[in-house]
User: Fold these one by one.
Assistant:
Number 1:
Amino acid sequence: MSMAHLAGITRDEAEGGTADSKAGAFTIGDLAREFDVTLRTLRFYEDKGLLSPRREGLNRLYSRRDRSRLKLILMGKKVGFSLAEIKEMLDLYDLKDGQALQMRVALKKFQEQIGVLERQRQDIEQALEELHRTVDVVSGMLRQKEAGAA
């Protein structure tokens, strides 16, 4: 299963290529609004080679492929992948080698990330337990002080 499949993007969408007409293109503002990201974020992803809008003068025009890649980038970030890891998986997807290599790499990365997130969940649960105990102790101490002052 590829990143595109997980993000609900068809192969046709992901391979959308460059849009030849304005009807198939998105402005930087269009994508920023649709995905609730800043213009700066989109320019940053472009600088990192994750998105490749074409230029018409000073304007950036994003293709359906760029839009799909942005959706994948944001999904990857949401589950904790670094931009370098996301780029590696997207670049493998672009190889069009029957997707076997991309699926193997993605599967390995997904399994590793599950482990990372499970460890983080355990750490968070432990921290919450400690905080709850501390709140109970401090609340008890405060009640005693307030009862003694009354």
Number 2:
Amino acid sequence: MYKKKEIGQSEKILNAAVLCISTKGYASVSLRDIADEAGVVLSQVNYYYKNKEGLFIEVIRALAQRYLQELENKLSQGKSEEEKTACLIEFFQDTLLKNPGLFKLLFDVTSMALWSDTFREPLRQLFDDSTALIEKYIIKDIAPRQNSDGYSPSVLSRITLGALFGTSIHIMLAEEQKDAVASLSAIKVLLSN
């Protein structure tokens, strides 16, 4: 007979923090809200994460790890660069439709990282790692064949990621999000020229 793996207190708190912050935003969530959601006392949150900033750094790291793994899994499904590009766009579309809280959290963190060195490094690492995946799976094959005006695969990957995230912000603000999600498909044009 197998025992069901129990979630540790720190993981419970981390999961509760992700849920609370992705639904209410960092500024609107207190450690007490997170403790209540996790079903623990406030002192346990402080014990494991010291303060709200420490907890949020761990939220960023955990989400970045999950996001990067899901992105790489999706990109590896494509055989050709066209299929890999379609997988990249589909990943963003699916995330926007099925897990918009992840993007809200990411945009919240991005705003904070502009003002805080503490948040800047993990977010910079997430963007660098995302860019590296786009370069590895898509751009490295496209750039040598196309006249890219001398731009490196790294620069082209950053532009691609920037276009995806910028368009995603627009989609999150759109009144008709499902219709707006289709606009991500236009990014294929950027990669095929």
